[in-house]
Amino acid sequence: MWPRWCRTWPPTCRSDGLGGWLSVCLGRLGEPRDEPGPPDTGRCCVPRTIHDTNGAFDLVVAGADAPVWIVTTVAEGRRAGCLIGFGGQVSIEPRRFLVNLSKRNRTYEVAGEAHYLAVHVLPEESGALAQLFGSETGFELDKFEHCEWHAGPHGLPILAAAAGWFVGEIMERHDFGDHVGMVLDITDARAPHPDISPLRYSAVADLTPGRPA
């Protein structure tokens, strides 16, 4: 996600995942600017040339403006869900999808005892739902009391406002650092309407995470 004071397209600020914002901003991708200014001036600081590999990587990922997802799960009667940006298909045959959850999220704790996850793609007008699952923490709030959902396959919470969703059995877990990846074997799905545009990172730039990654 990117800070609220940097709203150019392509998205040009990248979260460092540690509760702060990486100070790498571009007027347009590939055109660095070095105009100084604190966050509340609407400008960012950036070196004229970026030699740092991590910074360059962040810019590539930011420019892709990937879709965001809401992952929900249930275990021993406990429901949980969160907004994620680290996820993607990793196999065509058989169908496999990798979900990455922050170790600091309640969803990660519940998913550790779960056998299945539900992954939802959101329509681009779903900002309020993204805020609920991205800016609130399940340690303090039952998110499902504030949105419409129904019990789906394996009792998983399925969000009514989702454009589409799929369910997968957790086949493997991999520790990647501050996130744990869960490989899903797809067992059920509902396709979105072909005209739906998904909610992307650039649309959730104002969100403050409920828990730092």
Automatic annotation (TrEMBL):
Pfam families: Flavin_Reduct (PF01613). Residues 61-208 form the Flavin reductase like domain. InterPro entries: Flavin_Rdtase-like_dom, NADH-dep_flavin_reductase, Split_barrel_FMN-bd. It comes from the Bacteria. One of its GO terms (molecular function) is FMN binding. Keywords: Oxidoreductase. Belongs to the non-flavoprotein flavin reductase family. This is Flavin reductase. It comes from Nocardia yunnanensis. The lineage of its organism: Bacteria, Bacillati, Actinomycetota, Actinomycetes, Mycobacteriales.
